[in-house]
């Protein structure tokens, strides 16, 4: 333990406790007996004399060397010392030098002190989680869905459209069709551009010796995940990182009794902590993450989902990548791989879509230093940058896309790595549709929030990222909304021509535009995914080709459902249920990581 403490830059008791060889209660009891002082295994938070600011700072930095004052029932105060992060010899000298205080000093287990401090600052943390971003950067918060001028524009459009159709139906339909077609083609053009991305071989990373490994914080938001918590804990335990330099927060709502019960039934490792989030609106994943972030002390912060199985070496790859990257690289996105691609056509389509996104689109955007929409998991942040931009927006239901845009606005960049995280795709429409609805609704929120000041956004992002942002968050949603109308109009016009009915020139033009749109749209989607599929993944590709029109229509249904929810329930978080993996986690890609330690 002493050798580990010297190598990891910690102390003897930290290594001893995180090893699991000794419980906190036994250690504190034995140490108190050795030092001839009292000890407490539980602390009454109402008797602690401490400010919210100091309590929060101690929770984050583990500043246990500060004695805590505890009001006694008889009016006398006691001083509480947490023997974690304090040298034992120093602690012994402190007590020996002050024999008169021996009766007033008590040792407290670190977990007991954390529990007491968390109870003291629960309300303050809740207020911070809900209001912090809005208080700091109100113009970048989704707390207000649309501002005044955006509402005016939308209202004027909806009021003018029926009048235009009544006065000039043909011209109005042609103009709308042309606008939507141009938007649709911009999305197609972005996919074709990403086809130029070349997926090279995995590069062996050998970082320079930079001293001790930093503290890494891992956050996992859980909600109604009782079925997968045992697999999750097992997957997180496989992470290759010194346990004393790794803290894992399992963030769970206080009223989620099933998940909390499942977690309590597991013997969690000492470096894992369950953070219970008070019940308060909005009930979203980013609100839970914003609540837990002030409780972490890591130089780097990783985010995973409940069903994730990250490659055990992923944190090592990230650390190596950050070491060779300039400070403006604030986030690294790991690729998401689907483990159940053979579980049905929906899972196959989902896996195909993810392949195109994480193996081609995101690396292409990263290589050109363009704004990058983060995936909802396996994001790795420099903590300083995450704090600077305000963390997660509790009111945005796709907090990943919003945070990617906000990082870019502050001058930071996001890059990608190759070391994957495995997860499961939805296998039924009942699970796929709510998830896709939430994604599309969040993209709408993100676009509305960041387009409140278009000129300022253009200046902060630059022309390239500004255009990509319009395509990703506005164009993709509008394309999904317009797709059934483009397809339906083209089909009707084709039938009229086939029946030799007289058609006007504008109808023939529309038919040509629709054919080009649909053909190029499907082709770009299929080619982008095909280019990055592995040999074994190309088996059964004909199923993807045949189901693509159906899949796109499903995305259109989800988009219209998202519009309805944005108007009625903008902060509704539709939960995606997860099940244990049917088979073992697939092997990670070839390529070892060598660390100079």
From TrEMBL:
Cellular localisation: Membrane
Main subcellular localisation: membrane
Top-level taxon: Bacteria
Presence of keyword Transmembrane: yes
UniProt topology in membrane: Multi-pass membrane protein
Membrane found in the keyword field: yes
Database matches in SUPFAM superfamilies: Nucleotide-diphospho-sugar transferases
UniProt KW keywords: Glycosyltransferase, Membrane, Transferase, Transmembrane, Transmembrane helix
Domain Glycosyltransferase 2-like: 301-492
Transmembrane segments: 144-168, 174-194, 481-499, 511-533, 539-560
Protein name: Glycosyltransferase family 2 protein
Organism from which the protein derives: Mesorhizobium marinum
